[in-house]
Amino acid sequence: xxxxxxxxACLYVLDRLxxxxxxxxxxxxxxxxELAAFVREIESTLEQxxxxxxxxEPPAGxxxxxxxxxxxxxxxxxxxxxxxxxxLWVSISRWGIAALLLLGFGAMEFRHLxxxxxxxxxxxxxxVGLDSRQSMLSEVPLRQRPKDxxxxxxQLASLAEQMWEKPSDLxxxxxxxxxxxxxxxxxxxxxxxxxIAVQQLPTAGTGQxxxxxxxxxxxxxTCEAGILPLTDATNGLYFFSVQPGFxxxxxxxxxxxxxxxxxxxxSARPSGKVVLGxxxxx
Amino acid sequence: xxxxQENAAAVEEAGLLALAGRGxxxxxxxxxxxxxxxxxxxxxRFVGNTGDAEELLQDAFVKIWxxxxxxxxxxxRPFTWAVTIMRRTCIDHLRRxxxxxxxxxxxxxxxxxxxxxxxxxxxxxxxxxxxxxLLREALAEIPSNPRQALELALFSEMxxxxxxxxxxxxEGTVKSWIRRGLxxxxxxxxxxxx
Lengths: 282, 194
What we know:
The complex is a heterodimer.
Chain A: H1 3-13, H2 19-31, H3 33-51, H4 62-72, H5 88-91, H6 96-101, H7 105-115, E1 124-131, E2 135-141, H8 149-165, E3 182-188, E4 193-199, E5 208-216, E6 222-228, E7 236-241, E8 253-261, E9 273-276
Antiparallel strand pairs in A: 1-2, 1-3, 3-4, 4-7, 5-6, 5-8, 8-9
Helix pairs in contact in A: 1-3, 2-3, 7-8
Chain B: H1 3-21, H2 25-47, H3 50-67, H4 78-97, H5 107-112, H6 114-117, H7 121-128, H8 134-140, H9 144-155, H10 160-167, H11 171-193
Helix pairs in contact in B: 1-2, 2-3, 2-4, 3-4, 8-11, 9-11, 10-11
C-alpha cells in the first residue's frame, strides 16, 4: 500500500478527514479488502491507545442519568431492517447477541432438535457441511417457530455458536482431508438468514475474495449470500442473509464458496473457482 | 488483548449496537459497562476535569443510543465508532467554549516537568494512572515528532493547521508524522505481544 493511502487511512481512523474525503475513502474501502484490513489494524492500535488511558470510572448513578435522558427522547421507530443480499460484514453486527444472551440455550435447544424429528410443516434449520470437494446437507426441524425475527436470529446464532465451539455436534459429517479448508453453514429458510463457519481456508490470492453462494439445485437458481471478510485470517464465523425473493425447495438447497476477483459485482453470477462445496463449472 | 479476543469482542459489541438500535436497554447497559470507563477517561484527557467529562459522557451515550441503528460495521469497529462520538462531543464542547483547552501534555513534556503540566485534578489523576506497561513502552519507542503529532491529533481539538503551528512544521509534515506515529505504535505493539 502506498504511503498516501496509508496516511488517508490513519486520518480516517482519527476522524480527521472532511466529509468529501471521508465518503470517498469509505467507497474505496468497499472495494479494497487490503485497505479495509489496514484500517482495522489502525483502529485496533488506536483502541489500545485509548484503553491504556487510566481506568477512570464514571461516577455511580451516571448511567441512570443517561437512561433518564434517553427515556425523555421522542419515541423512535424501529422498522425492520430490509433483508437484502448484503455483504456478510454488513450484517455481522447482529451476531454478538448469541454469545451474550444465550450461552446455555443453544445446547439445550439443539438436543431438542435431535430428539424431535418433526413434521415437515415445522420450521427447519438447514445444515450444510462443506469441504474442498463436496457439500452435505441435513435439514433439522425446529421444535417451535420463533415468535419474532429477533428470536429467530438468536436461536440460529446460538446454534451457530454451539457448532463453532463443539463441531462434533454438527448433524453433517465430512471426512475432509484437511487440505483446502472446510466449513459449515446454518440457514433458516423462513428468515433467509444464516451463518457460515470456515476453517483453514487458504488465503485468497491478490485481488480476490471469497464469495458465498446459495443455490436451488432443482432450478439452478443461484444467489450471492455475501463476501467473506477474510483477509489474513482463514478462520471465521459469519452471519449472512439472502434476498427474500430467493426460494429453494426443501432438500434442494446447497451452498458453495468461490474465489472471485475483487471488483466482481455482488449481483454477478459465480465465475471463479469453487473452494468449498460441490465442484461446479460456470 | 489477543487479536482473536479483540475481534470476538468487536463482533459482540456490534451486536449490542444493533440491539440498542432497536431499543434494547439491556444491550445499551452492556455497552455502557464496556465503554463507560475508557470513554470517561478519554473525556477527562480531553477537557481536563471530571465535572465536564461527566456531562460529556452523558451527551456521548445519548448520541450512541440515538445513532446505534445507523452503525455500519463496514466503516469502523464498534469501539472506534464510540470513540469518534466521544471525541466529537469533546471537540464541540471545547470549541463552543472558545477557550484554550487544557492540553494534555505530550509524553516527553510530562516526563520532563510533570509538575508544570496542569493543576487539574482529572488530568493529574489520568496521568498518574497512565498505563505504565506495554503502551507506555511502545510510545517511548516512537520518535518524538511522530509521537507528538499523533497524541495531538488524538487527544486535542486542534486542527491540522493548529498542530502544524504548534510543532512549527508544514501541515503535510504533520500528517506524515501522524501516519508514522501510528505505524510505529502498531509495529511496537505487535512485536511486544508476539
